[in-house]
Amino acid sequence: MDFLTIVYLIYAFIAFYFLFLFVLIYIQNFRKIQEVPSITKKYSVSVVIPCYNEEKSIGRTIQNLIDNNYSNLKKIIVVDDCSKDNSFKIMKEYEKKYPNLVLSVQTPKNTGCAAGAKNYGSKFAKTEIVGFTDADSFPEEGSIEKMMGFFDDLSVGAVTSTVLVHNRKNILEQLQAIEYIVIKFTRKLLEFVDSIYVTPGPLAMYRREYFEKIGRFDEKNLTEDIEITWRFLENGYKIKMSVPSKVYSIAPNKFKDWFKQRIRWNLGGVQTMIKYSKYFMRKGMLGAFILPFFVFSWFIGVFGLSVVLYRLIRIIILKFLSTSYSIQAHAAILSMQDMRLVPNVLIFTGIIIFLFSFIYTFIAFYSIQEKGYKRPNFILMMAYMIFYVALYPIILITSAYKLLTGKVHW
Questions:
Q1: What is the 3-state secondary structure (H, E, C) of the chain?
Q2: Residue 174 half-sphere exposure, CB side, CA atoms within 13 Å?
Q3: Measured between alpha carbons, how far is 172 from 168 in angstroms, rounded to an integer?
Q4: Distance CA 87, CA 340 (A)
Q5: Which is more confident, 60 or 379?
Q6: What is the pLDDT of residues 218-230, one digit of tens each?
Q7: Cβ–Cβ contacts within 10 Å for residue 142, how many?
Q8: pLDDT tens figures, 11-20
Q9: How many angstroms separate the CA atoms of 55 and 68, rounded?
């Protein structure tokens, strides 16, 4: 057995392991996915919205929070990170219209990252819970209240929500809508093993006392929402997810913007892995599951693509050389001996992994209930499984190159 075959089999084992693990977690807990704790206390809440050049969406984001109908929402703190458009002017209009609820502030200078604007805005929050939502995201009515019950458990430091795609017109947006649903489904399953690894920016709530105690967001990390989640776990706090709390975010509609966003996500993830690598196989589920999960995901992506490309290039070169030799020697290019009908075990394994992945994706779709959006059809799902997912390893390799060459920036 050659080295590449061994690598492929290890890759297949890891893929099977995680697929089976998630399916087993789902089977054991599928009745609990939509559950949220009863509201026993109306926690006081402030929500911070970091904003930079979001004049097209900031007004709607503010209005969605106003219309969220959470009775103890004390303050909506909108932070302009020295925008170059009319964002700050729009914020001020809402502050004038809702003077007791909306507070518009501006950073002394551009921080260059969402974490900087978030930290600046959080200093104005004096409530029990401080939440964050992006300036291009729209929390659904009632989403805040459905997150509050989790905080009755004093060990809970943060609660995340279901993030979905708002814009679904072109094919890229529709494929991202599928991706977000699968991510949401996986994140909830990870909660059942205390392994949620990110509280996404579109809508997340933190217990302010713990948030300030651990030092707020890391402004040097490209994915501050991943890093702070790991820091909560490092300090022994739990992360929960409220599936019925939905927030719709504007996804990139052009491939260049999409690729740039995914590169940033991966670079931030690697930054976080490096920062917390000392906890590998230590510090509870952070080191026992989350870190290995990230490492194996990279292994599956980078080595999986490398093996496939190597074998493909090798076959093309060998076929070219054998064809050239056959023509020069006046020999048959193809004989009956070359036609093997015995299935290759590696190809068979790959097909099984694909089928299990498809089933997992299918289950994820039917775990979400959305109003006003149609479920993706079979062709779109296949396009996601075959083409969209195949881009992940390319993103990982590009991210690794940027990391090695020091090109790490927002």
A1: CCHHHHHHHHHHHHHHHHHHHHHHHHHHHHHHCCCCCCCCCCCCEEEEEEECCCCCCHHHHHHHHHCCCCCCEEEEEEEECCCCCCHHHHHHHHHHHCCCCEEEEECCCCCCCHHHHHHHHHCCCCCCEEEECCCCEEECCCCCHHHHHHHHCCCEEEEEEEEEECCCCCHHHHHHHHHHHHHHHHHHHHHCCCCCCCCCCCCEEEEHHHHHHCCCCCCCCCCHHHHHHHHHHHCCCEEEEEEEEEEEECCCCCHHHHHHHHHHHHHHHHHHHHHCHHHCCCCCHHHHHHHHHHHHHHHHHHHHHHHHHHHHHHHHHHHHHHHHHHHHHCCCCCCHHHCCCCCCHHHHHHHHHHHHHHHHHHHHHCCCCCCCCCCCCHHHHHHHHHHHHHHHHHHHHHHHHHHHCCCCCC
A2: 16
A3: 8
A4: 65
A5: 60
A6: 999 999 999 999 9
A7: 15
A8: 778 778 888 8
A9: 21
**∠ CA(248), CA(199), CA(116), 5° rounding?**
95
Instruction: For residue 120, give both structure tokens.
Output: 């600046």
Interstrand relation of 102-106 and 156-165 (parallel, antiparallel or unpaired): unpaired
Confidence of residue 152 (pLDDT cuts 50, 70, 90): very high
What amino acid occupies position 14? I
Both tokens of 53, joined, read: 């050049």
**Nearest to residue 50, comparing CAs of 3, 9, 104?**
104
Distance (Å, whole) CA 247 – CA 79: 20
* Cα–Cα distances in angstroms (integers) from residue 305 to residues 42, 85, 336, 395, in the given order: 50, 42, 32, 11
pLDDT for residue 37 is more than 90 = yes
Q: How many residues does the chain have?
A: 410
Contact 102, 62 (CB under 8 A): yes
Distance CA 299, CA 13 (A): 12
The two three-digit tokens of residue 247, written as one number: 């927030």
Strand partners, 106: 80
Taking the C-alpha atoms of residue 231 and residue 216, their distance in angstroms, rounded to an integer, is: 10
* The domain defined by 43-288 carries CATH number 3.40.50.720: no
Q: Kindly list the domain boundaries of the chain, sorted by start residue.
A: 3-26+294-334+341-404, 43-288
Do residues 22 and 189 touch, judged by C-beta distance below 8 A? yes
DSSP β-bridge partners for residue 156: 238
